[in-house]
Specification:
336 residues, alpha/beta, Rossmann fold, 2 domains, seven-stranded parallel β-sheet, six-stranded parallel β-sheet, elongated
Length: 336
Amino acid sequence: MRITLVMASDEDGGLEKHVLELADGLAETGHRVSVIAHPRYQHQLKQHINFVAFDMSGSRYNPLTKYRLKKEILKTDPEILHAHASKTAKLLQSMLQQFPCPSVVTVHGAKSNLKPYLAFDRIIAVSQRVADSFARPDKTVVVYNGVKITQSPQPYQPNRKFIAIGRLNEVKGFDRLLQAWQQIPHQLTIVGDGEQRIQLEQLVQQLQLANRVTLLGYSDQIAQLLTEHEALIVSSLREGGPYTLSEALLLHRPVIGTDVGMMREFVPEQFLCPPDDVAALCAVINNYLNTPEVEKLFLPAYQHAATELTFTAMIEHTLAVYQTVIETDVKNKDWS
């Protein structure tokens, strides 16, 4: 299958990680993969992928950008065109009928403007919550962001050491987590770096949490860190995934926190709370601490994750979407 992935983003987050890993995974299964994206990603992909450097950082309404993008897509001769996120969807929205192949778009989070996505033949949502927002079950399908885990699941250890992981920015809600942690007499490690680093360091001192909160900074040993802690805490104000949920559950670590992204599809309801609510976050953490036999409550989540959140499952489900869309496109052409 000839697959062309298009991504307008030029940042370093979960969306970009997903697209790059998806491209590698699809190529490893024997498909011819082209990626059209910002030049900065060229050296992050394996050599057997056809990388087309294209800077889409300007306006999504620029007619010259659209014209040049169309030419680059046609050069890759795709059997399936797969766009990612809102800017890419908007760039391609008006030209999809000009391509001799069906199109797919992945929605990585909740959106207010759904119209650009509806122009595509099929919409992949990263959670059921996102899929439901379209109210088009005939056009949407859920494919979770799968992760590669090389470490085996570890036995649950209630050591009262907790971990939170993510870029240190406002959307991750780490400031709310620190405020909630004033009432939690246990150890917390926050892993990640970002623009809020200094602000969070100051907040740790202001709230007198230095004796039980560690801002670890960036680490590439996430699996090992997860197994060293009892549970993952998600404090995000909004999310598409998050990836850390997948990693924790595949390693048999409980996950508690805000009801964002796909959290409600895997985490028992009693361990979820509304986002951006310090008191509610504190209450759900205390509820976890006071709940006996936590591991038994999470067994269904671990089993669900093993089926849906692996990297292999993500590649298989994505290819199944492609095949369905291509077969539907062929039938429609035959009928016409």
